[in-house]
């Protein structure tokens, strides 16, 4: 068996497809699919060119959802469209909306979803998903044992984002069936958490702080260092849960996955939860008082020291160079 | 207002995890309340308190009659629990879990169903939305703030750039992120009271669920290999003698990022 048709659910931010969506479109093409259909819950006109350029051969969009959440609406639209033929595989980014759409669809068509994948391969008759467990120390390979379509969610940055030079596909508008009570949740407003500089999951340099900073006020050192390096500030789950910084700063299993050129972990011990989100960084610098901290196991340069001394000295040294 | 909270009992995440011979996560040790679920329990207690009455009911499933994690949540103040315990549940996937929990929730009185966004051991992040879909209810995932008034639940739903404000009529399913509230520690009085709170233990047959829909077979997927991931080598480790910042600058210099 080969994989002929793959659907890819794509997230939009500000009208453009996210990198987590573009990488899946590209991987769908790389798996050998002859038809790669990008699905969008909303207006696709500003996303078509990039999706085509990354491998999408067709584009289905619902148009304005009138405040409905993606999960119920796009899940129902996909289920209905399958009456005309189901794809072999549907790929979703492991994002907020990606999870919701996959979850709603899985119930609607009674298919399992394999989640948190970091890779995929087609082996003869099998579609095999790869998931990293135990902090990324083991890879589990799981084959679907169900009829098409197979549903799989992928962690961001599992694949490279590479333009293929394909043309922009024509946008085909699909209808959303009446979802009744299940679709009763409505978005009434949107709040953007402003942050300066590059976005956390796109920055070339990420500086993250953790519990070792001692108190919320000290996080300012992380922001200063990120700014000095033209990078983005991040955080461990511990200080997000403690309310020092918003959730959007969190790096880790339940937060963002980052793979910058340089990742600096200051006062972060390196719990599995955190390592999963940053161990793919090209270079890792860790500063921690505890020389047994697990973060040193993945650091290219480990500084056993007090962040309250090392960070101010580092900021001063960088300021002196500019 | 009556609130149902889905809670999971998991192996202590502080211990290194291991796999059973069938490549499912080993759950032979004592299971504890997933910390991610303590936020839902706290949120439920606060919402019932604000509403001026009602009950908090826990719903959970295990293959082995385990209740210690449930007792923790009961000690926090939940009123009662429904525990689906059945040998057949070992290896159940997210969709099967949602079918079982939805059936168990159906045995209770509820205006609102809360769950953590994802468990700390399986972390699929799909179960709350799947429960809502099985029950035909509306849902709002990834809540960082919740209010209930006039038959509506108002939620700040986390998104890529901040949050959306979402309104949803009750009954509904809402999943909560860690940090939505500060979970209380069980008091001594609460721990003592929890011992006598009712736990309704049922099997999947009691819920009208066929064994073929759950467990490893019901998951319709097969682990074909478990391999060691390429390990990342630790590099140089130096003790700060007051000059560590110079080492960092030199390292960044070499990478040509400054």
* CATH fold category name of chain B: Rossmann fold
Mean pLDDT of chain B: 93
What proportion strand of chain B? 25-35%
The portion of residues assigned to helices of chain A is 25-40%
Uncertain runs of chain B are none
Report the principal-axis shape of chain A.
Answer: elongated
Uncertain stretches of chain A: none
> How many DSSP helices of chain B?
7
Helix and strand run of chain B: EEEHEHEHEHEEEEHEHEEH
The rounded Rg of chain A comes to 21 Å
Oligomer: heterodimer
Strand element count of chain A: 17
Give the strand line-up of the largest sheet of chain A: 9-8-7-10-6-1-4-5-11
Give the total of beta strands of chain B: 13
**What gross morphology of chain B would you assign?**
globular
List the domain count of chain B as a whole number. Answer: 1
H/E series of chain A, N to C? EEEHEHEHEHEEEEEEEHEHEHEEH
Provide an overview of this structure.
The complex is a heterodimer of chains A (322) and B (258). Chain A is an alpha/beta fold and 322 residues long. Chain A contains eight helices and 17 strands. Helix content of chain B is 27%, strand content 29%. Chain B is built from seven helices and 13 strands. In chain B, the strands form two sheets. Chain B has a nine-stranded mixed β-sheet with strand order 9-8-7-10-6-1-4-5-11, sandwiched between helices. In chain B, strand 7 and strand 8 form a beta hairpin. In chain B, helix 2 packs across helix 5 and helix 3 crosses helix 4. The longest helix of chain B is centred in the N-terminal third of the chain and has 17 residues. Chain B is globular. The mean pLDDT of chain B is 93. At the A-B interface, helix 3, helix 4, strand 7, strand 8 and strand 9 of A face helix 3, helix 4, strand 7, strand 8 and strand 9 of B.
């Amino acid at each position: 068996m080969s994989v002929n048709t793959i659907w890819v659910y794509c997230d939009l931010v500000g009208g453009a497809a996210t990198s987590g969506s573009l990488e899946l479109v590209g991987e769908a093409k790389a798996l050998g699919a002859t038809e790669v259909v990008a699905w969008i819950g909303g207006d696709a006109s500003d996303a078509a060119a990039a999706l085509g350029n990354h491998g999408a051969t067709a584009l289905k969009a619902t148009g304005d959802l009138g405040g409905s959440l993606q999960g119920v609406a796009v899940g129902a639209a996909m289920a209905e469209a399958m009456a005309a033929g189901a794809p072999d595989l549907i790929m979703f980014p492991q994002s907020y909306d990606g999870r919701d759409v996959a979850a709603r669809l899985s119930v609607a068509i009674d298919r399992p979803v394999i989640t948190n994948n970091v890779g995929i391969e087609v082996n003869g008759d099998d579609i095999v998903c790869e998931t990293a467990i135990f902090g990324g120390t083991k890879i589990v390979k799981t084959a679907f044992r169900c009829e098409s379509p197979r549903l799989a969610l992928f962690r961001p940055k599992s694949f490279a984002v590479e333009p293929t030079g394909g043309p922009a596909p024509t946008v085909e508008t699909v209808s959303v069936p009446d979802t009744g009570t299940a679709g009763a949740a409505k978005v009434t407003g949107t709040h953007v958490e402003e942050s300066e500089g590059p976005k956390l999951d796109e920055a070339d340099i990420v500086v993250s702080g953790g519990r070792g900073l001692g108190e919320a006020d000290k996080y300012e050192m992380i922001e200063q260092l990120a700014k000095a390096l033209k990078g983005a500030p991040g955080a461990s789950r511990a200080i997000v849960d403690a309310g020092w910084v918003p959730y959007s700063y969190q790096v880790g299993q339940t937060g963002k996955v980052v793979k910058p050129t340089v990742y600096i972990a200051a006062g972060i011990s390196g719990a599995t939860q955190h390592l999963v989100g940053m161990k793919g960084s090209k270079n890792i610098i860790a500063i921690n008082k505890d020389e047994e901290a697990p973060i040193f196991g993945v650091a290219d340069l480990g500084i056993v020291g007090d962040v309250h001394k090392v960070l101010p000295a580092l900021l001063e040294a960088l300021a002196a160079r500019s | 207002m009556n609130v149902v909270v889905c809670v999971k009992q998991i192996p202590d995440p502080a211990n290194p995890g291991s796999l059973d011979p069938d490549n499912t996560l080993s759950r032979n040790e004592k299971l504890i309340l997933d910390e991610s679920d303590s936020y839902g329990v706290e949120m439920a207690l606060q919402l019932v308190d604000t509403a001026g009455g009602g009950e908090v009911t826990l719903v959970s499933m295990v293959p082995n009659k385990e209740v210690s994690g449930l007792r923790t949540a009961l000690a926090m103040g939940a009123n009662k629990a429904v525990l689906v315990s059945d040998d057949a549940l070992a290896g159940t996937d997210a969709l099967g879990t949602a079918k079982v929990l939805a059936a168990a929730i159906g045995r209770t009185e509820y205006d609102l169903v809360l769950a953590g966004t994802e468990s700390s051991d399986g972390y699929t992040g799909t179960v709350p939305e799947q429960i809502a879909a099985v029950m035909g209810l509306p849902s709002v995932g990834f809540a960082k703030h919740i209010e209930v008034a006039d038959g509506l639940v108002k939620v700040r739903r986390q998104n890529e750039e901040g949050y959306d404000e979402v309104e949803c009529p009750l009954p509904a399913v809402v999943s909560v992120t860690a940090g939505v509230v500060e979970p209380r520690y069980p008091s001594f009085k609460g721990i003592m009271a929890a011992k006598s709170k009712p736990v309704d233990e049922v099997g999947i047959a009691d819920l009208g669920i066929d064994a073929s829909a759950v467990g490893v077979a019901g998951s319709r997927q097969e682990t074909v290999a478990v391999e060691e991931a390429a390990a990342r080598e630790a590099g140089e480790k130096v003790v700060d003698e007051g000059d560590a910042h110079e080492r960092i600058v030199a390292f960044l210099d070499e990478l040509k990022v400054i």
